[in-house]
Design brief:
The complex is a heterodimer of chains A (676) and B (337). With 676 residues, chain A is mainly β. Chain A contains 4 helices and 33 strands. The chains are: A mainly beta (676), B mainly alpha (337).
Chain lengths: 676, 337
């Protein structure tokens, strides 16, 4: 299959490269008869000109300092991504445009765990450098495990982290360096990233025996110290009609915190069939990884009516702990042909091979008794080959109307599918039609319809067929009013669900699944005056799934609860106001209120009594965020700033099993700044 | 060793290709689009006059001039840059007709009287009203060898296909207004630019569980390349999994025990933009898992704590659901250890 893909891509390249033979004729047609090419004329004139005198641009400097006051009560989820402690803050910006140098520095330090930096430097655009740091603090949940009958030891819970507050500082750092040869389009580049995560999070595990004979759900603290490093080096150039980019990438994931956890496990199994003796065993191992990738991109003619590109990419990953390996090969090609501006054809092909090689056996050892080692057979992972071919036609019959028709065929072939009781092949056929229409000058309509048919879907979440539609209308009824309404709906249907019982045999009787997802969006902006604008918007999101679910009876036979509905809804109301009451004052105020809820509705009394399984996950949350920002500019570039944010999360139904608790936070940042 | 081998391969390729390519760099499109080229060539009866006679001569445009000087294109106003010349007329077309009859003395006199000297701007290319493809062609005629090669898939990408032009996101004449040398917004505010068209995505980011995009800590372009890719949804990386594991590498694998193919596409269980449910889950547990898996024992006759253990949160016990290297007590890969 890989040969077929390579051959196809080679043919793409040959066809496209071959079209270069037509270059003389077609170029001549245009440039001599219809168009006097701008490039030639410009160059001639510019060469005769005196050197361009760059103006003196004084460096732009902005410095801001302030104090950030935080007040939190209840859950820190009220502000999920902020470090909720008082702090001094510092921000600054530097822009230097002194030919041949260009420097841009943007820094915003909210506190020691939440900061942003963006620095870029260019020398004549021969050297380009950019480095970005984004560091944030993510407040994480401490989920309270609840035992509905503490008098029984199994099932039981073991909460070892009742008072812990969790959070992880995440640093996202990236650098990009590009070097160019003067007067020739050859570039060498380096693209690197370092993602760090440092902090603590809750680790939930099944302890006791880890088996049905002794179920103890446990929560405990875990130290996180992870680093993901990725580096890509590459080069590209422009070789007449063909452009080539070649790159190599390396990636590593290193774990420095609690790489693995150890706990005492009791004997697993029901007497006399003990399947694993007790001991101290590892659990929740985070493996270290390494990998590399090689990519070749070929491209021809960005500007012409025939454009083609091909990408070949090979990526490998290795689990440094277990030795499991994965290889991915991707070959993709695209051709765009625009015989006339009204009509364009797009042809795309993508071939993906996934080859996963996991060990045949896995061993786990009792660290208190190394002779207590249990080796298990491992089911081979699924490797697959996926081919996708799609064709698109874009047609503009009249000015202001664009029609698009698309057809896509995808086939996935799986290895080891029988081990997983999955189909060896799945085929997807997707057709879509879309229209962009300017009904009148101030009214634009966009509509899209997609139909999908899937033969032998592998997993229950994939439908046999689906239909999806979207329509959006943007309207400017008056010069100072801008409105948008958008609605999308998707329906999926599946008539043959696939479940396995505890012995791995297919369950009869579960067949139906219907999914309906829709979104409604409305937004209107009023430009009340040149100094005052107001935007209000409303969004409604609904996700409804109705399907047969399967569970086991006391005698371990499979039972089906038919067409159990699961529904999530969310309403979001927001208002944003910008006001410039004077030349030296700017104000911005915003409110966002979101109400989200969800539950599901089993009907079997086995699922409803003595307690409904739906009650554990029922959710209803109200979130409100108010913000007020203002700046008062004094003389000499000095300004006073105020940024206030009030955020409230309200767990309306107070479900003790979920991870949502009420919380409020006030964050006030007062700044003084100077701009030079 | 792999790195050294690949470096050697790269250098050899460069060494082989580079010589003799000098003459090829002036190549033309294979098959030009005549109609669009006519739109962007400007008035054929006009002459090029150079920036000295355009922005530099008219103080009204001082801010625009400074912006262009400070933009990513700025250095290309001079031959000294070692790059092709780019100036006002490269995009707006020849300007002699626009300034016909205007003298430096008149400009100066008007400026003293606080007036802008009106030029006949209608003789320039009508950039705002030409089709999006022609607008983009103004940029593409030079950016055929884009440095970062991020235009590789532009023409077949969803933006080009949907009549989005380079100028919907980029501007090189507003550096001092936008704070960016080539974008219409500050780099930190790119999401606001995307929301102009993708408002439904903005609504998803307002849901209780979301990536920190509204907080400006994750950018849309961390995952998507607006210039187009060969990947679904213009993902920057080759697969969904590769995109997500840029940051979530602990879930990447490969693992000894895999969750079938499901971890190849994180969207099986997660709504990447935002969700009503915690951890961006598409549905809440246990229903999420019950879509594909038979539930444990559930009977009205069993004590309620069994339901609490079996149906509250599947990942409380199956806590290595993204994959694991350790067998479960049953000897199988149940993602418990």
């Amino acid at each position: 299959m890989k040969k077929t893909a390579l051959l196809t891509l080679f043919l793409f390249s040959v066809i496209l490269g071959g079209t270069g033979l037509a270059q003389d004729v077609t170029t001549e047609d245009v440039t001599t008869e219809d168009v006097t090419t701008e490039d030639v004329t410009t160059e001639e004139i510019i060469l005769e000109e005196a050197p361009y005198p760059f103006p003196e641009i004084a460096p732009g400097i902005y410095l801001s300092g302030g104090y950030r006051s935080v007040s939190v009560s209840g859950s820190e989820r009220a502000v999920e991504y902020e470090y909720l402690h008082d702090s001094l803050s510092l921000a600054g910006e530097l822009r230097v445009f002194s030919f041949p140098h260009r420097v841009h520095l943007d820094v915003d330090i909210k506190n020691v765990k939440d900061y942003f930096g963006d620095v870029s430097y260019a020398y004549k655009d021969i050297v380009l450098f950019r480095g970005i740091n984004r560091t944030l603090f993510h407040n994480l949940d401490n989920i309270n495990l609840i035992d509905l009958d503490p008098t029984t030891s199994s099932p039981g819970v073991d909460v070892r982290d009742g008072d812990e507050k969790y959070g992880v500082q995440t640093g996202m750092n990236s650098v990009f360096l590009r070097l160019k040869t003067p007067d020739f389009p050859f570039h060498v580049y380096l693209d690197g990233s370092l993602i760090t995560k440092d902090g603590t999070q809750q680790q939930r595990s099944l302890l006791g025996s880890g088996y049905f004979n002794d179920i103890v759900r446990t929560s405990q603290k875990r130290d996180i110290d992870w680093q993901t490093k990725a580096l890509v080096i590459g080069a590209n150039s422009h070789f007449g009609p063909i452009e080539i980019d070649i790159s190599h990438g390396e990636k590593r994931f290193d774990v420095y915190g609690d790489k693995v956890m150890y706990d005492i496990y009791g004997p697993a199994g029901f007497l006399p069939n003990i399947i694993r003796p007790g001991g101290i065993f590892p659990h929740n191992l985070i493996p270290e990884l390494k990998g590399s990738s090689n990519t070749l991109k070929i491209h021809t003619s960005y500007t012409g009516s025939l454009v083609g590109s091909a990408t070949l990419s090979k990526t490998d990953r290795e689990n440094r702990d277990s030795g499991a390996k994965a290889e991915y090969f991707i070959g993709a090609g695209e051709v765009v042909w625009m015989p006339m501006p009204r009509l364009t054809f797009f042809l795309k092909y993508r071939h993906k091979e996934t080859d996963i090689d996991n060990p045949d056996f896995a061993t786990i050892t009792d660290i208190s008794n190394p002779s207590n080692t249990i080796t298990s057979r491992v089911r081979p992972s699924i490797s697959s080959i996926a081919d996708t071919l799609s064709g698109i036609v874009r047609y503009r019959p009249i000015r202001g109307l664009t029609l698009r028709a698309e057809y896509s065929y995808e086939n996935v072939k799986r290895e080891n599918a029988d081990e997983w009781k999955l189909p060896e092949s799945t085929t997807r056929n997707i057709a879509s039609l879309s229209a962009d229409m300017r009904i009148v000058r101030s009214l634009n309509l966009k509509a899209r319809y997609t139909h999908k048919e899937i033969d032998t879907p592998a997993y229950n979440i994939e439908p046999d067929r689906s239909d999806e539609g979207k329509i959006s209308l943007s309207w400017i009824p008056l010069p100072k009013i801008n409105a948008l309404v958008s609605y999308s709906i998707a329906k999926e249907k599946r008539n043959d669900l696939h479940f396995l019982d505890s012995d791995g045999n297919a369950v009869e009787g579960a067949k139906n699944r219907d999914v309906k997802r829709d979104k409604l969006l409305g937004s209107i902006t009023f430009l009340i005056s040149k100094d005052l604008s107001l935007t209000t918007s409303y969004a409604y999101i609904r996700n409804k799934t109705k399907q047969d679910i399967v569970f086991l009876s006391e005698t371990l036979t499979s039972l089906t609860d038919p067409l159990v509905p699961h529904k999530d809804t969310a309403h979001n109301y927001s208002l944003d106001l910008n006001y410039l009451p004077g030349n030296n004052i700017s104000l911005n105020a915003g409110v966002s209120h979101t109400i989200s809820s969800g539950t599901f509705y089993p009907s079997s009394s086995d699922l409803l009594e003595p307690v409904s399984i739906a009650s554990f996950s029922e959710v209803k949350i109200r979130e409100t965020v108010y913000s007020l920002n203002g700046e008062y500019r004094l003389k000499n570039g000095i300004a006073l700033g105020m940024h206030y944010k009030y955020s409230k999360i309200n767990d309306v139904i107070g479900n003790p099993h979920d991870d949502i608790n009420d919380g409020t936070a006030h964050i006030l940042l007062l700044t003084i700044s100077k701009r030079w | 060793m792999t790195l050294i081998r690949n470096l050697f391969f790269l250098l050899t390729a460069v060494t082989i290709f580079l010589p003799g390519c000098e003459a090829l760099k002036t190549s033309q499109p294979i098959v030009p689009i005549k109609e669009y080229e006519k739109m962007i060539v400007g008035r054929l009866d006009a002459e090029y006059i150079g920036t000295q006679n355009c922005l530099s001569a008219c103080h009204y445009h001082d801010t625009i001039r400074r912006s262009l000087d400070a933009s990513t294109m700025g250095v290309q106003l001079s031959r000294k840059s070692g790059l092709p010349i780019v100036n006002c007329e490269s995009c707006h077309g020849p300007g002699s007709l626009a300034i016909e009859g205007i003298t430096p003395e008149k400009v100066e006199m008007d400026a003293k009287e606080g007036r802008q000297t009106a030029c006949n701007y209608k003789t320039f290319i009508d950039i705002k009203n030409i089709p999006a493809q022609a607008q983009s062609l103004i940029c593409l005629k030079c950016h055929t060898a884009n440095a970062t090669f991020n235009l590789h898939n532009w023409n077949a990408g969803v933006h080009a296909m949907s009549d989005v032009s380079c100028m919907d996101c980029h501007s090189i004449c507003s550096t001092f207004k936008t704070g960016s040398p080539d974008l219409k917004v500050k780099p930190r505010d790119t999401a606001e630019m995307c929301y102009k068209c993708h408002q439904e995505i903005k609504a998803e980011f307002s849901l209780p569980s979301h990536h920190p995009v509204p907080e400006k800590r994750v950018f849309c372009i961390d995952c998507h390349d607006p210039h187009g890719t060969t990947n679904d949804k213009s993902l920057r990386k080759a697969t969904v999994k590769e995109t997500c594991t840029q940051c979530h590498a602990e879930k990447e694998g490969p693992f000894v025990f895999e969750h079938a193919e499901n971890t190849e596409d994180c969207r099986t269980c997660h709504n990447h933009h935002g969700s009503v449910n915690n951890n961006l889950l598409t549905l809440r547990e246990p229903f999420l898992c019950l879509q594909c898996h038979s539930g444990h024992v559930a009977s009205r006759n069993l004590p309620k704590e069994f339901k609490g253990a079996f149906f509250t949160r599947c990942t409380g016990c199956h806590s290595q659901i993204h994959g694991t290297d350790l067998p479960s007590p049953s000897g199988k890969g149940r993602f418990i250890q």
